[in-house]
Amino acid sequence: MIKIYHNYSISKKSYIHVGGRVKTYCECDDLYESIKYLKNKNFISIGNTSKILFNFSYCSKLFFCFTNKKIVFFKDVFFAYSGISLYELYFRLKNKNITGFSLLATIPGFLGGSIVNNSSFKEQCISDLLIKILVFQDNKLIFLSKEELNLSYRNSSLKKDNLLIIGGYFKIIKGSKENIKKEFLLANKYRLEKQKFTFNSLGSTFKNTEKYQIGKILDNLSLKGYIFSKSVKVSPLHANFILIKPYSSSKDVNNLIKFLEKVLYNYLGEKISKEIQIINKDGRE
Ligand SMILES: Cc1cc2nc3c(=O)[nH]c(=O)nc-3n(C[C@H](O)[C@H](O)[C@H](O)COP(=O)(O)OP(=O)(O)OC[C@H]3O[C@@H](n4cnc5c(N)ncnc54)[C@H](O)[C@@H]3O)c2cc1C
Fold first, then answer.
1. Rounded mean pLDDT of 235-252?
2. CA 174 to CA 281: how far, in whole Å?
3. H or E stretch including 260?
4. CATH 3.30.300.130 describes domain 2-66
5. Whose CA is nearest to atom 32 of ligand 1?
6. Is residue 121 lining ligand 1, measured as CB closer than 6 Å?
């Protein structure tokens, strides 16, 4: 089924409930209806928006979310559609004794956005078992092999407009249901201890580098728990996380990010890349 909304308040869809109106927001769980609708249009694909700051009061673009959550199993591989959450993916694979996703299940994203960001948690990365993906691009459905995605730490060449990941083929590795569940519970416990937040967040604000653990650096600079405004602050548990009250102004969030960026630049003498992806009124930053 396809749902199309005009002059839509994107804060309703936003993971942190922040952002203004967009010209059009569309979600659809059917592959052929999605393609028919997107043909010859410019669009920005979104998933669970757990990494996106919508930083505008109005944006004249079309935002599209593919909500198909199906998994199709073959002998040694499975194909998962990109609208499935990483938790549901883990849960359904666990029931078939398939391992490799139990730590990733604690990341609050959908599969499509997680492939784009090459999401990882501890020793599991979404691309570990990935073989190839199916995308809609240039009005065509095409397969892209893992090697064509230029995957690196929290990055890929898929972070762009007018591209929709339909889903991906992954290798099947069998394991015991008990161990798979145990791994998930341990990872979840770790999250609850280290990242128990009273407000929402978009995960790590900046990317760590080989040289720098950004959370530690911001902590050393006494920025842990730093209150920037009534609705936006640095987490008192993890200095690379910003905590955001629902329906805060996106300007407030963006200003805190800019402030931290400047502090890091002044201290390290080099620019540190943001992990949060900002969409301004004219599009991606
Ligand atoms: C509390 C918290 C903890 C987190 N912990 C981790 C962690 O441990 N490790 C980690 O790697 N990340 C972590 N994240 C970040 C985030 O959850 C992941 O990057 C996530 O996988 C993104 O998925 P999403 O569906 O929310 O994508 P979105 O935020 O919606 O989108 C991310 C990017 O993907 C694009 N996109 C989304 N869907 C599609 C699609 N179907 N086709 C084409 N492009 C698409 C968007 O345009 C955007 O560029 C955390 C976030 C939070 C809030």
1. 93
2. 46
3. helix 250-268
4. no
5. 113
6. yes
Atom of ligand 1 nearest to the CA of 82: 41
Share of the chain above pLDDT 70, in %: 99
Task: Residue 278: count other Cβ atoms within 10 Å of its Cβ.
Answer: 17
Measured from the Cα of 66, ligand 1's closest atom is: 41
The closest alpha carbon to 252, from 267, 230, 275, 271, belongs to: 230
Topology (CATH level 3) of domain 71-192: 3.30.465
d(Cα 16, Cα 247) in Å, to the nearest integer? Answer: 8
pLDDT at 197: 63
Domain ranges of the chain: 2-66, 71-192, 198-284
What is the 117 CA–ligand 1 centroid distance (Å)? 6
Q: What is the dihedral of CA 31, 19, 284, 213, to 10 degrees?
A: -110
Find the 251 Cα to ligand 1 centroid distance in Å.
21
pLDDT in tens, 35-60: 999 999 999 999 999 999 999 999 99
Burial string for 71-87 (b: 16+ CB within 10 Å, else e) reads beeeeeebbbbbbbbbb
Fold of 198-284: 3.90.78
